[in-house]
Automatic annotation (TrEMBL):
InterPro entries, per database record: Cyt_c-like_dom, Cyt_c-like_dom_sf, Cyt_c_1A/1B
Keyword match ATP-binding: no
Keyword Cell membrane tagged: no
Protein name: Cytochrome c2
PROSITE patterns: CYTC
All residue ranges annotated as the Cytochrome c domain in the record: 22-126
Signal peptide positions (record): 1-20
SUPFAM superfamilies, alphabetized: Cytochrome c (SSF46626)
Provenance organism: Pannonibacter phragmitetus
GO molecular function: electron transfer activity; heme binding; metal ion binding
Gene3D superfamilies attached to this UniProt entry: Cytochrome c-like domain
Length: 132
C-alpha cells in the first residue's frame, strides 16, 4: 500500500508542477500586453512609460526609485500598501477603478483566466529578474 501511495503522490506533484509551468507560460504570453510599457528580467527598470515588474508581488506600491508616480499611486505607497495578489488582480482587471487617478492608460484584462495566468507568471519573477 505504501509504494502505491508514494507513486500517486509523486505523480500528483509532477502533474501540479507541469500545470504551474503551463500556467506561467500562458502568463508570459499575456505579459506581452504589458511589455509595451513594463519590463521584467535582469535589465528591467524604469522607462518613461512604466516601471520594471521584477518582484512585484509583495512589493510596496509606488516604491520604484526614479519613476514619477501619480499622486494616487504614491499615496498608496506612503500608506504602506503592497501589491498583494488580491489587489494586483483588481488592478489588472481595471486599473482606473482600483486606483482612481492612476496614469496607467491600460484598460485592463477582461478575462479572469488571463489575470490568473499573469499572476502565476509575475509571482515567479524574483526582484533580481530571475525566474521569468
Amino acid at each position: 500500500m505504501r509504494p502505491l501511495f508514494t507513486a500517486l503522490t509523486l505523480l500528483m506533484a509532477g502533474t501540479l508542477t507541469a500545470q504551474a509551468a503551463d500556467d506561467a507560460a500562458k502568463g508570459r504570453k499575456v505579459f506581452a500586453k504589458c511589455a509595451i510599457c513594463h519590463k521584467v528580467g535582469p535589465d528591467a527598470g524604469v522607462t518613461s512609460a512604466g516601471v520594471g515588474l521584477n518582484g512585484i508581488v509583495g512589493k510596496t506600491i509606488g516604491s520604484e526609485p526614479g519613476f514619477q508616480y501619480s499622486t494616487a499611486m504614491a499615496a498608496l505607497g506612503a500608506e504602506g500598501k503592497v501589491w498583494d495578489e488580491a489587489f494586483l488582480a483588481l488592478f489588472l482587471q481595471d486599473p482606473a477603478a482600483a486606483v482612481p487617478g492612476t496614469r496607467m492608460a491600460f484598460a485592463g484584462l477582461k478575462r479572469q483566466a488571463e489575470v490568473d495566468f499573469l499572476l502565476v507568471y509575475l509571482r515567479q519573477i524574483q526582484p533580481d529578474g530571475t525566474g521569468h
